[in-house]
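so my prof wants the structure for this chain in the tokens format not the other one, which i didnt know existed until like an hour ago. anyway here's the sequence
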Amino acid sequence: MGRILLVEDDPQVGELVKRFLEKEGFQVRWARLGREALDRVFEEARPDLVVLDRGLPDLEGLEVLRALRELDPLLPVLLLTGRADEESRVEGLLEGADDYLGKPFSLRELLARIKALLRRAGKEGRRRFGPLEVDLEGRQAYLEGEPLRLSPTETNLLLVFAQAPGRVFTREELLERVWGPEFDGNERVVDAYIRLLRKKLKDDPLAPRFIETVVGLGYRFLGEEWKPSSSTGP
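here's what i got, hopefully its the right format
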């Protein structure tokens, strides 16, 4: 679904929102301070959207918003606030927020607003990595224009990779994201499904185009090395 940076100092609200969005398929990084959020945007993989609380203990939310706009003018930002008056809403929008949601809020409404912002920003739908195209919403992948016949588990594994190109996942992380926290099987099941997925992607583990083994750590999707293109060739 996409990468979200959640900036929220309230531990109860932050944990609730993080868990909810992760269950909906998003990758969520949670920063409790404004400076921490700016460091993450600058140092880590760019999020697809920021959910920003206006009332932070170190920086006022609008200060963080202005700094985010300087770093990336196109980054979608959804502002959360306990201030429900019109002046506060207008102020946030004029400072560059893409949308505004007052507290307390419904998690379903938050999800709807996030999806709407991502659709407008073009972050949902299909992603192309050279000859591989992944339809995140439709849960379908195409290699050189031909649909891949993937099992549900193989599909879930590929979607996790495609949403975080360049990131190293440990076997434990993949087990939790693909098989769920209640799965009590051996971590080697991950290796078995990686082999199956590589075979269908025509990916040589000794010279990988898509899935790289990171010795001692886990696996990484090499999608960042491919540029979006209308061509079906590498």
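also thought this was worth mentioning. Residues 225-234 have pLDDT under 50 and may be disordered.
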